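Section 5: illustrative case.
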């Protein structure tokens, strides 16, 4: 065993180190996901609610279905650990998933128009066989879309663990997630430009449909191209999976059942999982309501509200890299994450206050600050996430952390719309209904910080090593 470990360490040292150009190239995958996020949660969400008059609660739940299939992330991660495609553990899964979500998203928007036509014919939302059928089909498509995203993104994040070392992982996290905010910014700006014919608030529904259908046909194809460019040749040149994992070349690969036993061997897994769920929920509860907030409270048009994502993305663009390069080395990962959480809570208060005078300037400032704070808490928590993995089951652990975030994101989109609907029913002033959503986010972030205080990375590593050793001895069969 000692000889094997020495051989693995030597092999790892002989592999080339990631350079900055490759880190930025990898970030193109996240750029594509950022663009898709704007298309679905930004543009499509706004159109379904504001232009097609589909109830906010129904819209939010349908869009959230893509996140509720997230348990599959653990399975896809374990598959990439144990069943390589054409000799590679991660790349094939990334490409197959990207091709699938490109096709599914283009089809989904056509189903949305069918629902919109039914609302127009019925003079409002009416539950009948037609609306139930089309809603179920749209939900199914978004479930498949979520599975495709999981197929692609979970192995990609595991690839980041495989190809990085302790001394460059912080930089990789900062750069790759910075590139996602670039995608959010590009998505917002390009949506504003490509949807410029809709600046007229009286634009016909036919013009809305043709413009957005074209957008959803072309942009996903571009995202597919970015996924291929981002990962082409990276695993072959840089992956340390074979040298780090004591089980990489064994015929008795870790099964999903064994991987789950390793995953649950430490109570720290549950603590960190809970922290990720609450933190992510608190960050993204506003996704389903931010654009409607801008439209109803501030009187913004569709292109203007699509730019709201850009303001906080610009804040994140600066703070993600700055946090990875400067804050974490000085404060540490835990303190950095806590600082970001406190700042996020403060920013939600500012977003609420901006609504009282309906000040677009104050809203934009608050969103930029929110982006800065989000970048700090995100980089800190992601750095902790990559620390809380075991080489032998990196895909499984990344799948679990992805599951936590996806549960939160899915719940956030759904709960955001539902809470807004409850607020609208309980308050006669629309601003109070939106404030209910933002206020709950501020409180939730403080609760997440409390769970973070109980996370211990060293305890997790000790438990994981013991569990993996037990698997190798066959005692978990």
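Designed sequence:
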């Amino acid at each position: 065993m000692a000889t094997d470990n020495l051989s693995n360490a030597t092999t790892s040292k002989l592999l080339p180190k990631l350079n900055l150009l490759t880190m930025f190239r990898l970030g193109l995958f996240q750029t594509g996901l950022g663009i898709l996020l704007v298309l679905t949660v930004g543009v499509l969400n706004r159109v379904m609610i504001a232009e097609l008059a589909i109830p906010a609660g129904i819209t939010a739940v349908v869009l959230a279905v893509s996140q509720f299939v997230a348990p599959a992330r653990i399975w896809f991660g374990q598959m990439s650990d144990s069943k390589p495609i054409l000799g590679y553990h991660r790349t094939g899964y990334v490409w197959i998933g990207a091709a699938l979500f490109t096709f599914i998203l283009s089809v989904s928007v056509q189903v949305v128009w069918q629902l919109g036509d039914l609302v127009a014919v019925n003079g409002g939302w009416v539950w009948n066989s037609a609306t139930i059928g089309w809603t179920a089909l749209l939900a199914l498509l978004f479930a498949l879309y979520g599975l495709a995203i999981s197929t692609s993104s979970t192995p990609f994040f595991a690839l980041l663990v495989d190809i990085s070392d302790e001394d460059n992982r912080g930089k990789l996290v900062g750069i790759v997630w910075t590139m996602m905010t670039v995608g959010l910014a590009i998505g917002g700006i390009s949506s504003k430009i490509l949807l410029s014919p809709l600046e007229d608030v009286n634009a016909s529904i036919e013009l809305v449909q043709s413009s957005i259908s074209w957008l959803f046909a072309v942009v996903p194809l571009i995202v597919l191209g970015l996924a291929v460019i981002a990962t082409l040749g990276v695993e072959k040149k840089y992956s340390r999976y074979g040298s780090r994992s004591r089980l990489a070349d064994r015929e008795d690969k870790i099964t999903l059942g064994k991987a789950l036993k390793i995953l649950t061997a430490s109570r720290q897994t549950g603590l960190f999982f809970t922290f990720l769920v609450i933190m992510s929920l608190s960050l993204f509860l506003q996704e389903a309501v931010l654009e409607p907030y801008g439209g109803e409270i501030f009187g913004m048009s569709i292109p203007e509200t699509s730019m709201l994502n850009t303001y906080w993305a610009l804040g994140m663009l600066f703070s993600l890299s700055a946090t990875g390069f400067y804050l974490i080395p000085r404060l540490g990962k835990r303190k950095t994450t806590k600082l970001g959480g406190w700042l996020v809570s403060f920013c939600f208060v500012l977003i609420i206050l901006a609504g009282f005078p309906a000040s677009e300037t104050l809203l934009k400032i608050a969103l930029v600050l929110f982006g800065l704070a989000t970048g700090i808490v995100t980089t800190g928590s992601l750095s902790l996430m990559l620390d809380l993995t075991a080489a032998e089951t990196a895909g499984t652990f990344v799948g679990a952390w992805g599951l936590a975030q996806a549960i939160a994101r899915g719940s956030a989109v759904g709960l955001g719309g539902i809470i807004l609907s409850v607020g609208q029913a309980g308050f006669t002033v629309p601003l109070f209904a939106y404030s209910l959503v933002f206020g709950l986010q501020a409180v939730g972030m403080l609760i997440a910080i409390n769970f973070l205080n109980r996370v211990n990375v060293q305890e997790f590593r000790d438990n994981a090593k013991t569990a993996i050793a037990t698997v190798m001895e066959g005692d978990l069969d």
